[in-house]
Design brief:
This protein is an alpha/beta fold. It contains 17 helices and 14 strands. The chain has helices at residues 14-21, 24-27, 40-48, 59-66, 93-99, 106-122, 137-148, 153-156, 167-172, 185-191, 201-204, 223-238, 243-253, 260-268, 297-309, 319-326, 329-337, and strands at 2-7, 31-36, 54-58, 76-81, 84-85, 87-92, 127-131, 157-161, 178-182, 195-200, 211-216, 270-272, 279-281, 286-287. The protein has a five-stranded mixed β-sheet, sandwiched between helices. Helix 1 crosses helix 12 (223-238), helix 6 packs across helix 7 and helix 15 runs antiparallel to helix 16.
Length: 338
């Protein structure tokens, strides 16, 4: 059976790329054609309109698409999660210099960020910060980060959508002053001498739900073999012994605009955060391990709570129940049992 699977070029697409390229899908009777999508909005629409059979997708965007909050409403099912964490907040060198935080602790960095944001807003030059999509954990982490600094993101900052592969270009051109994005794009910006990684997403919201495997709710007779293939590929990706091979695969196949050594550092959670070569190590920076694969309805409820908090949804109603129903641990269990 042949299927087309969409992905956005990020390190956390590793399980679906490995499933397609390393024979895990073929072992389950599937031939996967990978489709590199330029933005989350494009991927969302192509999945909803049937141009894609499955997708590596932002968890909040899958929920928003299924609830009719973003793009064409789509009947979706989420039989597997792909990862936890993987994001970071990166700011331009000029902004970091102006911030001069007392330490690298998230609270100190957020307080310095808030101070500069307020000052620049008073001068008529509000900070412009990029996020990958309104319905993303990146947007929610930015708001939580702002909260650590004691201010409301909406009051002093312009939040704009920039697709992950374009974040570094936007920073280089001065269109944005910083961004929250997934690996490897924060590290690519640092390697290019354009910015400083200010805070890791896993320090702002530990074990933050991230990408999921999204399928049509009806007619996906390939669901069980696909979940098995991506699960097995995910186990392979999470094994440190395979890190170098996986890094080369992602550099060659996923068009991540970075070399294998840089990707390997993001997989290992050992990040170079500035032009001086300062290293920050956090093994939880990007989690691809087996414990992340089961789709947990509690994660959907947490994401809906973030949507309510930033006024994408009104409080009350049945949105949390509907979102939780999209997450299908029963399908995942049936696939693994098979």
């Amino acid at each position: 059976m042949r299927i087309t699977l969409g992905y956005v070029p990020l390190t956390d697409a590793a399980p679906v790329i490995a499933a397609a390229e390393l024979g895990f899908a073929r072992a389950e009777g599937l031939e996967i054609t990978l489709s590199r999508e330029p933005s989350w909005a494009t991927l969302r629409d192509r999945l909803a309109l049937g141009h894609l059979d499955a997708a590596h997708m932002l968890g909040p965007l899958a929920i928003a698409s299924a609830l009719g909050l973003s793009g064409p409403q789509a009947g979706l099912s989420i039989p597997m999660a792909l990862n936890l964490n993987g994001n970071a907040v990166t700011v331009s060198n000029a902004l970091w210099s102006a911030m001069a935080p007392a330490s690298d602790r998230p609270g100190d960095v957020a307080a310095a960020f808030a101070r500069v944001a307020r000052a620049w807003a008073e001068e008529g030059r509000p900070l412009t910060i990029g996020t990958v999509h309104p319905f993303s954990s990146h947007s929610y982490q930015l708001r939580l980060f702002a909260g650590l600094g004691g201010f409301d993101l909406d009051t002093v900052i312009r939040l704009v959508v920039v697709p992950p592969p374009d974040t570094v270009k936007a920073l280089r051109r001065g269109i944005i002053d910083g961004f929250c994005v997934g690996a490897p794009w924060n590290s690519v910006a640092v390697a290019a001498g354009l910015g400083r990684i200010a805070a890791l997403g896993c320090e702002i919201a530990p074990d933050c739900p991230e990408k999921v495997l999204a399928l049509p709710a009806e007619g996906a007779d390939f669901a069980l073999p696909l979940v098995r293939a991506v699960h097995q590929a995910g186990l392979w990706c999470a094994d440190p012994a395979n890190r170098d091979a996986l890094s080369r695969l992602l550099a060659e196949r996923a068009e991540l605009d970075s070399d294998a050594a840089l990707i390997a550092r993001t997989l290992g959670g050992a990040l170079i955060v500035d032009a001086d070569g300062t290293e920050r190590v956090n093994p939880a920076y990007l989690r691809l391990d087996a414990a992340t694969h089961r789709p947990d309805p509690a994660q959907a409820r947490w994401l809906v709570a973030q949507m309510v908090s930033c006024r994408q949804l009104p409080p009350g109603g049945d949105a949390a129940d509907r979102a939780a129903a999209l997450y299908r641990p029963d399908i995942f269990a049936a696939a693994i049992a098979g």
